[in-house]
Batch of 3 targets.
Target 1
Amino acid sequence: MKFVILAVLLFTSGQSFKIPFGFGGISVDRTQNNELALGIQRGVNVLGNGYERNTGLTIGNGTFSTSEAADVLVGGTRSGPRSSLGLTKDGFNIGGNVAVQTKPKNLHGVEEYTGNTRMLHDEF
């Protein structure tokens, strides 16, 4: 099974595609720097309530990085932690934050999202 996944990634590395499955999906893409970006998305949203979780992996061109985002959806608001860990040509990168998005304000028929983000980010 691992060989099949590796073969698919090697032969389709120039293409961008997404494989949907129940409650999520897998995506393969290229970044602007021609790095391979793999993503796993999963979640459930029922009338604005549920969860979403995204995991990313970027490999290539002297770069290896991972990222993780988890959100809880309650009444249309999205809150959750984010983290990243990576090694690039410029050095080691580690970071994390907590994102809180409040309900949209309806100003004259236009929805505007407000939010607060607490950032914790370091580069070595």
Target 2
Amino acid sequence: MRGLPRIFTRQSFLLVQVVVCVLVFFMAYRNSTKRYKREVEDLCRSRNITLPRPDVAFPVPKTKKNPVVSAEIKPGDKHINPRIPSGISDNHWSNVSHSIAQNDTGDRENTNLNMKALTIVASFQNFPPDDYLARSESFFVLRDSVVNDLDPRWLIQNSPCLSEGPFLLVVVPSVDEHAQHRKAIRATWASPAYGQPWPGFARPFKELVKVVFFLGVASVEKRKDLIREAELHDDIVQGDFSDTYQNLSLKMTAVLRWSATYCPSAGHVMKVDEDTFVNLPLLLYVLKLSSYFRSNYVLGYKHAHAQPPVVRAGKWGVSKEIYPLSTYPRYLYGHSYVISGDAIQRLYHASRHMPLVPNEDSYVTGMLAKSAEVLRVHSDKFAYAGKANTCDLINNKDITQTHFKNPTAFLAMWEMIQTRNCSRPFL
């Protein structure tokens, strides 16, 4: 009889252990998102970041529709919404933002992608002041009169922007003979904007993301083909300017004007080169979180030089008559960068009052951003001049990568994303 209590106690103890383990496992499974929330809060506290309200999936803009942006909106105007300028209703955002959270692989994958996005946002670096240009600050003061009155005639005018959104407008500068490049982009990383879900996701991001290919004057033999392409995909905008390297800044200025006029409620505008691949889900998560912490910014990969030098000869050569200084303001590489919706207005105004310089990235993300007092933000997850490992795109470590030389490389990258098999680290 003396052994019974001891046996009973041992058995009870084992039973309690089993029950506790089962309960712990069950609660851990049920509360994976709560654990993620605690991890997020700990990370935010360590980085001095204030989290948004947990009940908001995406920044909910005001329901009032924005008017078409005027060219004379100045950087200091008080009425510019410091948040995302959009006319999207609360119900619309609730429905649309839910689509990005519906991942076929379950909550664990969602929280992992969220955590990676938060880590990326927490690593953002604001540009320091351009102190080395202190003696030349007067050059970057916007001129009183308009010096660039660009008002191109739109030869093809598709406008995918509705009164509600989009959250992200992607602008891809292109040329008439690159129809196969555009086809490859539509079939791969941009396909969620055309109704196809990203691999691993249940739904596309068609209402969140719109894509526009921006072209100059086409050759006579390509004109009819381009019109048919525009009618088929509704994603072509063509202006009456020449498509040359020296006109890249002019072309991007036209993009700013078009975006401000025909897509004023876009939450963000992303410029992407044709040879650049975009991890669209990761980008959306990053911009969703970034919208809580910053406004009036341009985001991308900073130029390698702390004082970017001006090249006077060759393809990138700029004469002293056009730009008399020996260095540019710090700027972002032009492969891919994102402009917040409220900064589009400021950059557009600045482009009308600042002399044009041919190098598009140094002009838009350096000179105009500095003159318009737009925050320049660096992230090493964007494309840069060097060659990157494509496995980092598959594993959600990079937002964009560049140097995809032809449509075949896009298709090969897309196949690896679909199979999650990094068989070719370098394309």
Target 3
Amino acid sequence: MIVYGRLPFAQPTTHGRLLAIVNPNTIIDFPPVANPGIYKALRRSLVRDFRDRASIDELLEISYGI
């Protein structure tokens, strides 16, 4: 929310958000941001399959430039 001003599964209702989260066909929009490290961290954190999602150690190794 800090980066884009909205939640990744922005829906008008809680029920709609929950349905979007569990629906594998929901596409998460990742508009480019000025900081490539933050962009990479968001993309890697929101991978649906937990086996492919970034670990804490991987996220800590990303250069955020801050």
